[in-house]
Amino acid sequence: MIQERHALLPEATHDESARQDFVSSLRKMFTTELFPGTRRVYQEELLPRHVARHGQPPADQREVSKLMERSFYYRGSNVIGRAAQELLWDTVGESIERQLDTLNAAAKPKLGELGTLTIDPAFQVPRYIDAVDIHVMPGNFHTELGEDDVFAGALYDRGVHVFSFGGLGPRNDGLGVAHAAFVKERFPDLKPRRILDMGCGPGFTTLPWKDAYPDAEVYGIDVGAPQVRYAHGRAEAMGYPIHFSQQDASATDFEDGFFDIVVSMLVTHECPQPVIRGLFAEAHRLLAPGGVTVHDGGLVASHDPFENLMTSWFGVNANEPFSAGFKALDFEQAFVDGGFAREAVFRGTRDPVYLKGQLPPISFIGAVKE
Question: Among 61, 100, 149, 316, whose Cα sits 20 to 30 Å from the Cα of 93?
Answer without folding.
Answer: 316
